[in-house]
Design brief:
mainly alpha; 16 helices; 59% helix; elongated
Amino acid sequence: MNAGRSSNCRDRGVSADHERKFGAIVTLLTHCFVISVLAVAMLVLGESTAYAKVDYSRPVNAAPKQQDIGKTYQVPPVQRVPPRSLWIYGLDVLLLAVGLVVAALVAHRWRRRWMAVAISIFSIAYFGFYRQGCVCPVGSVQNVTASFVDSSLAVPLVVLLFFLLPLIAALFVGRVFCGGLCPLGAIQDIVVLRPVQLPPAVDHWGGKFKYVYLVLAIWFAAQPAATRDFVICRFDPFIGFFRLNGTAWLLSIGAAFLLVGTVVGRPYCRFLCPYGGLLAIVARFSFWPVRITPDEELDCGLCAESCPFGAVKNLRADRMTCLACTRCFAHCPRQQYQWGDIELIEVEQLVEAHREKSLATSKPAASTPV
C-alpha cells in the first residue's frame, strides 16, 4: 500500500513539473504568435499604400507599333496581373503561426496521432494545393541568401517570417513544423504504409546529403543575378502535384519519392530537404524537445521500432531527426496509462514481458554437440 502511494505521489510530482515546463512553452509560443500578428499588421498597413498607388492598367512604352508591324495589325491591349492582396499573405503567416502553436501542443500536450494527421491534411489542402506550395519555408533559404549578397534585393516580410518562425519553434519545442505543417513532409507522411527500419549507417550517412544540398542551394542563390539559380524550387519534386502541372521527368521523380515513401518513411525529408538540415541544427539545441513518454522514462524499449524515420536512438527521441509525427506515443506504456487505456499494474507487466522477449532474442543459439 505504501509503495503504491509513493508511486502515485511521484507520478503527481513528475506531472506537475511537466505542467510547469509546458506552461512556459505555451507562453513563449504565444509571444511568438503575437509578434507574428503584429508583423502582419505592420506589413498590411505599411505596404498597402504603396501598392494602391500603382496603376496596373497603364500601357507599356515598349509595346509594338502598327507602323513597325503592318497597317492591318491591331495592337492588343496590354494586360497586367495585379499582385495578390496583402491580406492573403497576412493570412498565410497567421495560419503558419497558429499551426506551429497547435503542432507544439499536439507533440507536447495532447499527444494524439489523429491530430497530427489532421494538421497534415490541412497543410496539403491549404499550403499545398490552394497556395500551390508558395510561400514555402524550404525555398525561402534562397531568398534570404540572395538578399545578403545583392544589396538591390530585399526579402519581403512574409518570406522572412516563413523562414524564421519554424526555426524559432524548433529552438524551443523541436521540429514541430515537420510534424505535418510542411506540405512537402505532409504529402510523404500520409503515404507511409509499411515502413521498414533502415540500417543505422544508411540513416546516418544518407542524412548528410541534405547538408550538401543546402550548401549547393546557398551557393547557387549567392551567384550574380545573371547566373543566379533557385535550385530548391526548380527541382522541387512535389510542386508539380500541388500546381497540377510540371515536366514529366520532375513529376516522375515526385511519384518515385512517394512510391518509395510507402516503405521508407519520408525519404526526401530525411535525406534531401535542405531546410530540414537547418531545422535539425537548430533543434539540436532545443529547450523542450519531443519526449516519447509523458513523464518518467521506463527504458523498456517498446518504442524502439515504432518510428518509421529512425529517430528513436538509445530509447529516446533524437532531437535532430525527430519529426514530431507522434507515432511513438501509442507504444509507450506510460502514455497508455495516462490515457486510461491500461492500469498501472499492466504497465509493469508490459515492460517485464518486453524485457524478457528482448533477452530471449539476444541470447546466442546453443551449440549443437557433435
